[in-house]
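User: Here's a chain of 116 residues. Predict its fold as tokens.
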Amino acid sequence: QVQLVESGGGLVQAGGSLRLSCEASGRTGSRYAMAWFRQAPGKEREFVADISWNGAIISYAVFVKGRFTISRDNAKNTVYLQMNSLKPDDTAVYYCNTRVGATDYWGQGAQVTVSS
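Assistant: Prediction complete.
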């Protein structure tokens, strides 16, 4: 079992920044890739970014490339999502994710609201 807890969401004006954190506990292991997804009201959950266990491989969705940065601190079992130049379209609940074997684990989500 893995527990994921997100923090750092909130309300920000367009053009502003937020940093999300996701702390893992339980059957944690730094040797797992971690990812961020988001879900806007009335829309499907979509991939935002992921990072390999050692941080060497990172990928981003096209719509956040150049604005968001994913990183991790394995000593703290924490993954981060630095979000800059936020747009109203970035408004969503952001979820942290990891997969252990065939099981996906999700956090409870962090609300990010960007006002225009």
